[in-house]
Amino acid sequence: MARDELAARDELAARDELAARDELAGRQGVAALIAAAGLGERLGQGPKAFLDVGGRTLLAWVLDALTPEVDEVLVGVPREHVERVRELHPHARVIVGGVTRQATVAALARATAQPVVLVHDAARPFLDAATVRACVALAREHGAASTVTRVADTLLDVDTGVPVDRERLRAVQTPQAFLRTWLLEAHETAEARGASATDDAGLVRALGRPVQLVLGGAHLFKVTTATDLALARAYAAAIGGPPSVPAGAP
């Protein structure tokens, strides 16, 4: 890459960081954006957000964990469940989710004016306050943060059969936190390009912006299969309430 191109890139990165810091000065509000519009087709028991785990729905677990930590809570759900969720959770703003998770998060981001947003999946019920706070703090300082966890299993390249060095790999989880302007730009750019990603941090990275990492853990697993649901019910019975897990280095 030519020297002038490198200089231009460095200048753009510096401007982005300055703009992020200017935006955050005196504006510290945080909105939680909960993606809960999935139909749970793989599990086959209806929308996962409403599955019962330990006497509470998955969505209720997430709302109970997030509400004390943020200034505003928004939930995207299937159209036919909007009124039900509004009645059950009157403190949350409930909107109609999109056809895809990506569309749901984009709609949620557009529906708030808070400068920092924290994205989380309703299908990850066991959210701890330390991880939420670590993600928000890094997003305020750097613009974007994602929860990740270390990979426990041995990994193979399917073409060569050669093991992959798992020490340099992390599995992506939620929560993820962003400056709202960064997240909106990432979604608008993806829509314009017809691009998609399985997580919002991937869309932000596609803009060339760095995403800080926060160590999550096995407790942030996603309920996708019947085995996951059984595990969630057993874990809920064991802990009796939201987990208390300190955030660490990734």
What do you see in this structure?
There is one protein chain. With 250 residues, the chain is α/β, with parallel strands linked by helices. The protein has one domain: Spore Coat Polysaccharide Biosynthesis Protein SpsA, Chain A (Alpha-Beta Complex). It has a 7-stranded mixed β-sheet with strand order 5-4-1-6-10-7-11, with helices on both faces. It is globular and about 55 Å long. The two termini are 31 Å apart.
Secondary-structure blueprint:
Layout: H1 3-24, E1 30-35, E2 52-53, E3 56-57, H2 58-66, E4 72-77, H3 82-88, E5 93-96, H4 101-110, E6 116-121, H5 129-142, E7 144-150, E8 155-156, E9 163-164, E10 170-179, H6 180-193, H7 200-205, E11 212-215, H8 226-239
Parallel strand pairs: 1-4, 1-6, 4-5, 7-11
Antiparallel strand pairs: 2-3, 6-10, 7-10, 8-9
Helix pairs in contact: 4-6
Short structural description:
This protein is 38% helix and 20% strand. It has 250 residues and is an alpha/beta fold. The chain has a single domain, classed as Alpha-Beta Complex (Spore Coat Polysaccharide Biosynthesis Protein SpsA, Chain A).
User: According to CATH, what is the topology?
Assistant: Spore Coat Polysaccharide Biosynthesis Protein SpsA, Chain A
Number of domains: 1
CATH architecture: Alpha-Beta Complex
For the secondary structure, the number of strands is: 11
* Oligomeric state of the chains present here: single chain
End-to-end distance, in Å? 31 Å
**CATH homologous superfamily designation:** Spore Coat Polysaccharide Biosynthesis Protein SpsA, Chain A
**Count of helical regions:** 8
Per DSSP, what share of the residues sits in E-state strands of 2 or more residues?
Answer: 15-25%
Largest sheet: 7 strands, mixed
Rounded to an integer in angstroms, the radius of gyration calculated over CA atoms is: 19 Å
From N to C, what is the helix and strand string? Answer: HEEEHEHEHEHEEEEHHEH
Counting helices, strands and paired strands, the structural category is: alpha/beta
- Helix fraction by DSSP (H/I, runs of at least 4): 25-40%
- The chain-level mean pLDDT equals 88
Shape: globular
Which CATH class? Alpha Beta
